[in-house]
Amino acid sequence: MWKRATSVPEAQVTGRWSVFEKTFVVDNLSLMTTVEIATALGRSYFSVQGYLQSSGLIGQRKTVKRLNGRALYGLLETDLAYLAGIVDGEGTVTVARKFNSHAGKTYYQPVINICNTSEALAQWVRTRGFKTSTSISSRRVPYWKMSVGGYWVGDVLGLLKPWLVVKQPQATFVQEFCTLRLSQRHRDSPTARMLQIYKELRRLNLRVSPPREFRSPASSTTS
User: Residue 29: which pLDDT band, with cuts at 50, 70 and 90?
Assistant: First the structure.
């Protein structure tokens, strides 16, 4: 359990790092995310991020997606089966593509996302060690989100895959992508097969309108 900093001298907030702060970061780096450390110390996210980079600790930081992946390994089989059902119905299993303008490079990250509006379900997720974030949709509806990301998503999917039904094909593709990426060097570009998997996942996850015969009467026009 981490100890919250209750009083932070002004010098610490404006830039200089005290021995207490440095010790706090080292002691809690495996327990807290960068945002949580920043909140506890009364610093900005970018201040803590900058310190982690300058001190060589950046590779040891714990992101929400990594912590959520770790939480999966502590679940009972019944919980894994239930979570797989949530992923099937409310989740996305894919490889996300992001462009880093500073590095001038496109990155591909395997990810599992779950989005929902039920607070009861959110409580079930949180009580099992997962961290969620909250946001508001384009329709101004509040919702929560839980994510697992990184190249170890392939191992995580190995835990869920026995109970997946709808997302079985996506899980298989993401596992293959992770295996191929981990066989490369850090700076290697995606192979042709990896790019093909990315495109196939986009196709599988594409949401299309239902056929006319399955639309509700309210959604159809009358003559």
Answer: confident
| In the block, residue with structure tokens 């490079």 | 105
Phi/psi class of residue 49: alpha, beta or left (left: φ > 0; alpha: ψ in -120 to 50)? alpha
> What's the whole-model pTM score?
0.67
Digit-coded pLDDT (tens) for 146-155: 988 888 789 8
Q: Is 161 left (phi over 0), alpha (psi -120 to 50) or beta?
A: alpha
Q: Which of 27, 29, 30 is nearest to 52 (CA)?
A: 29
- Name the residue with tokens 């639309």: 215
Fold for the domain defined by 64-205: Endonuclease I-creI (3.10.28)
Specify the amino acid at residue 87.
Answer: V
